[in-house]
Write a structure and sequence with these properties.
binds magnesium ion; binds guanosine-5'-triphosphate; Four Helix Bundle (Hemerythrin (Met), subunit A); 445 residues; 12 strands; six-stranded mixed sheet; 3 domains; 46% helix; binds ligand FFO
């Protein structure tokens, strides 16, 4: 997919801005830079102010800050030039026009600068993914996790495991190659003990309830409950805007309505759903099916009940069937008294979306629960299904190693495990993976 040559792209967003940055990377970057400025190559890694010209007409296009990074000390490892232009549309268009006319220069593919950094050995694949996540990070917790991964925290963990397995493999091969030599009696037992210890670490890493993935993707929270309970009102309150239609008519919401929230630094995908009730209306029934499906896959379910028509039997039914994470009884402003006997009510929160009663406590509780679901632990978290699948496959190979009927097969199982872990960081053949990983990058990155 990538071809060599010199690439260029606007690294800052399209459209008007104070400053716009255009980056060039590749063997012709220096020559082109000289050609569109005054012929001198600036000193490496020092900012200089220069006129940028159209070399054909000599016309000055902008007065810009120029940065020159000679290879290999650059982001991509190649010669890199940066033009920090005034961010007007016409300035950007004129400079991009001139660059696209230069022989040997072409517009970069999305992610191609980073891809070159990977191919030059500047970053491994987990750092590349961390960089992509950093650019996509919308909340504090996401930013921290991404920066940590970009800095090599996951890479260090996986490379550490791989190095330990390589040592085990070297010993296992020695046992095969020199069966008659006087190898220490307990070597085999040592290897098995090391693999067992590694398996425990991998298992602990995998058994993180998807915290890292949740933090990356957003924690899915569903609001479910009977019709007219105030579910849409609650979503609007949390979103701070009128995202969903509210009305006194039961059965108003049909489609699932999703909003993105930042709750205490954690990203939440909150869904308002159709009220659950018996209905003869086919459309409403489809809405209820969608509500149940979304809720089933959610990380957290808020069951919102209608305090104005509070019914213990119905409450017990909802609680047993919908698997709620939290029960909230709304419209406390209309309730004469808090229902007493039902057990579920003892643990439920009483609120009024309308009057605001109990809402601060509810929000604090929700923030706490969301943080519990996605807060990072001491160790770096697995953030992608790609890592999980490779580790599960490595884990299977290691389990087979422990049961292997012959030293040859045991060594082969180790080789497979080493390879799987190597694929996570990109240490071994990952050609097939690269297009997938770089596909979602933005242009100019
Ligand atoms: N103007 C500008 N700002 C930017 C970037 C950029 O490319 N240009 N970055 C782009 O993402 C990020 C910074 N990342 C960078 C990472 C490495 C190198 C670099 O020159 N690395 C050399 C030298 C290392 C050193 O001096 O310590 C190297 O790795 O050899 C540059 C930027 C964020 N800000
Ligand atoms: N008194 C009172 N009325 C409320 C409260 N919260 C919501 N309502 C009203 O209850 C009615 C239903 O609110 P919605 O938010 O549309 O309820 P819903 O659960 O989304 O209803 P469906 O989409 O039909 O299932 C509206 O008239 C709201 O104004 C509250 O705390 N107190
Ligand atoms: Mg509704």
């Amino acid at each position: 997919m990538t071809s060599p040559g010199t690439i260029f792209a606007l690294a800052t967003p399209q459209g008007r801005s104070g400053v716009a940055v255009v980056r060039l990377s590749g063997p012709s970057a220096g020559a082109v830079l000289q050609k569109i400025t005054d012929g001198r190559l600036p000193p490496g890694r020092k900012v200089v102010l220069r006129s940028v010209r159209d070399p054909e007409t000599g016309q000055v296009l902008d007065s810009a800050l120029i940065l020159w990074f000679p290879a290999p000390a650059s982001f991509t490892g190649e010669d890199v030039a940066e033009l920090h232009l005034h961010g007007g549309r016409a300035v950007i268009a004129a400079v991009m026009q001139v660059l696209s006319r230069q022989p040997g220069l072409r517009l970069a593919e999305p992610g191609e600068f980073t891809r070159r950094a990977f191919l030059a050995g500047k970053m491994d694949l987990t750092s590349v993914e961390g960089l992509a996540d950093l650019i996509d990070a919308e909340t504090e917790a996401q930013r921290r996790q991404a920066l940590r991964q970009m800095g090599g925290a996951l890479s260090a963990l996986y490379e550490g495991w791989r190095a330990r397995l390589l040592r085990v493999l070297a010993h296992a091969e020695a046992i095969i190659d020199f069966p008659d030599e006087d190898l220490p009696e307990e070597t085999n037992a040592h290897l098995r003990a090391e693999v067992t210890a590694l398996l425990e670490e991998i298992d602990a890493h995998l058994a993180d309830s998807r915290r890292g993935e949740r933090l990356r993707e957003g924690i899915r929270v569903a609001i479910i409950g009977p019709a007219n309970a105030g579910k849409s009102s609650l979503l609007n309150w949390l979103a701070g805007r009128d995202a969903a239609i509210v009305s006194a008519t039961a059965g108003t919401t049909r489609d699932v309505i999703e909003v993105h929230l930042d709750l205490g630094g954690y990203p939440v995908l909150l869904a308002d759903t159709a009220g659950l009730r018996e209905t003869a209306d086919a459309l409403e029934e489809e809405g209820i099916r969608r509500a149940r499906r979304w809720a089933r896959e959610a990380d957290y379910r808020i069951l919102l009940l209608d305090g104005a028509v509070y019914d213990e039997r119905q409450t017990a039914e909802f609680t047993s069937q919908e698997n709620p994470s939290l029960v909230v009884v709304n419209k406390s402003d209309l309730m004469m008294s808090w229902p007493t006997s039902a057990t579920v009510v003892g643990e439920a929160l009483s609120v009024s979306v309308k009057s605001g009663q109990g809402m601060a406590g509810f929000l604090a509780r929700l923030e706490q629960e969301v943080a519990r679901l996605a807060a990072p632990g001491e160790a770096p978290a697995l953030t992608r299904i790609r890592h999980r699948m490779a580790l599960e496959s490595a884990r299977e190979s290691l389990m087979r190693f422990l049961q292997a009927p012959s030293p040859d097969l045991a060594a082969e199982d180790l080789r497979l495990a080493v390879r799987e872990i190597g694929r996570i960081t990109g240490r071994v053949d990952v050609e097939d993976l690269l297009d997938v990983i770089f596909r979602d990058f933005c242009l100019g990155k």
